[in-house]
Design a protein that fits this description.
alpha/beta, D-Maltodextrin-Binding Protein, domain 2, five-stranded mixed sheet, three-stranded parallel sheet, 12 helices, about 25% strand, Bact_solute-bind_prot3, SBP_3_CS, signal, Solute-binding_3/MltF_N, transport
């Protein structure tokens, strides 16, 4: 099977699986509602061990980072990290309850306790840090803009009074809302909806994390990431409930160990290298 067909199969499987299993939720920018900070001194790590399962929030429709395959199995870079966490904490990579999340409800799921740890390609921002606690980053990212090759968007100035497609609650949504009010934003909850809208011509371009866009454009050769880096360089990191020091310290230790012993790079080689090939070097995406 060619990589293009494989990527298309992954997306198709994600759409079917999400239709059955995706969870509904509120918006990232509603972080002030719902949920309370973790009680001081509460040992969440001990509670997870006693329960025998860790609930980890991941995407279901964002290959190669988090997606549900045609067999209903969670796959992707974030999923590999989650399995390592479960193995170290509970002795088995299978002792995970994967909770499917969308971009717009990630903060809500952490604050409400619906997940213990969020590993859904979550970019650290000052606004989000007021609502959740971020652990050490495991990935670096910036924004990019993908557009048709026949009508490439090579400069943000070309987007004036045009429709740009974004996902609700993402850094792309926040960046263009704050810095470019002259751009019309059409927002969607799910990645599959957003990319379908680009193919349908409902927008002149689509803004998202550049790492995702490079992967998507490679499998959709009629499109190109003509703007590969826009806005500030940012980090992707796990998140836990605000004030949950025990769990935060444990997650920090896990990320540090995975960087040191090579498991983070191994996860990259298993899930991202087949997509990026030589176009992207691991050190360009993996956090130190």
């Amino acid at each position: 099977m060619t990589l293009s067909k494989k990527f298309s199969t992954l997306l198709a499987g994600a759409v079917i699986a999400l239709g059955l299993a995706a969870c509904n939720g509120g918006a990232d920018n509603q972080a002030a509602s719902g949920g309370q900070p973790a009680a001081a001194g509460a040992d969440t790590v001990a509670a997870i061990k006693e329960k025998g399962v860790i609930r980890i929030g991941v995407f279901g429709d964002k290959p190669p980072f988090g997606y549900v395959d045609a067999n209903g199995k969670n796959q992707g870079f974030d999923v590999e990290i989650a399995k390592e966490m479960a193995k170290d904490l509970l002795g088995s990579p299978d002792k995970i309850e994967f909770v499917l999340t969308e971009a717009a409800n990630r903060v809500e799921y952490v604050r409400s306790g619906k997940v213990d740890v969020l590993l859904a390609n979550f970019t650290q921002t000052p606004e989000r840090a007021e609502a959740v606690d971020f652990a050490s980053p495991y990935m670096k990212v910036a924004l990019g803009v993908v557009s048709p090759k026949g009508k490439p968007i090579t400069d943000v100035a070309q987007l004036k009074d045009q429709t740009l497609l974004v996902n609700k609650g993402t850094t792309a949504d926040a960046f263009f809302t704050k810095n470019h009010p002259e751009v019309k934003l059409l927002k969607f909850d799910q990645n599959t909806e957003t990319f379908d809208a680009l193919k349908d011509g409902r927008g002149v371009a689509l803004a998202h994390d550049n790492a995702l866009l490079w992967a998507w454009a490679k499998e959709n050769p009629d499109y190109e990431v003509a703007i590969g880096n826009i806005g500030p360089a940012e980090s992707i990191a796990p998140a836990v409930k605000k004030g949950d020091k025990a769990l935060l310290d444990w997650v920090n230790g896990e990320i540090a160990a995975m960087k040191k012993d090579g498991r983070l790079k191994a996860a990259y080689e298993k899930t991202l290298l087949p997509v990026y090939g030589d176009k992207v070097k691991p050190e360009e995406l993996l956090a130190e």
